[in-house]
């Protein structure tokens, strides 16, 4: 549980958002909580099953986009 909130606080930088109205805070927080849960899930899955291919948890377009951002070159075929 502590790791989840650390991801939410540090990784998603929720505290830096400083949203002033509840109408903006609730949907934003809900979205970031889902993102933090997925990051935690993928982190734990990566530790347990490090040889698993990425297309098990990501769609083709998702992992290609991540590859381009991380490596700054087109994804392999």
Automatic annotation (TrEMBL):
| Transposase Tn5 dimerisation domain residues | 34-73
Which source organism does the UniProt entry give? Nitrococcus mobilis Nb-231
Q: Where are the transmembrane segments?
A: none
Q: Report what the protein is called.
A: Transposase Tn5 dimerisation domain-containing protein
PANTHER family reported for this sequence = TRANSPOSASE (PTHR37319), TRANSPOSASE TN5 DIMERISATION DOMAIN-CONTAINING PROTEIN (PTHR37319:SF1)
Q: Which InterPro entries match?
A: RNaseH-like_sf (IPR012337), Tn5p-like (IPR047768), Transposase_Tn5 (IPR003201), Transposase_Tn5-like_C (IPR014737)
SUPFAM superfamilies the UniProt entry points to:
Ribonuclease H-like (SSF53098)
A Pfam family per the record: Dimer_Tnp_Tn5
């Amino acid at each position: 549980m502590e790791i989840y909130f650390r991801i939410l606080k540090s990784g998603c930088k929720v505290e830096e958002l400083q949203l002033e109205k509840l109408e903006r805070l609730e949907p934003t927080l809900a979205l970031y909580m889902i993102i933090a849960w997925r990051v935690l899930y993928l982190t734990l899955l990566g530790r347990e099953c490090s040889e698993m291919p990425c297309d098990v948890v990501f769609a083709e377009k998702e992992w290609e986009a991540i590859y381009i951002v991380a490596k700054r070159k087109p994804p392999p075929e």
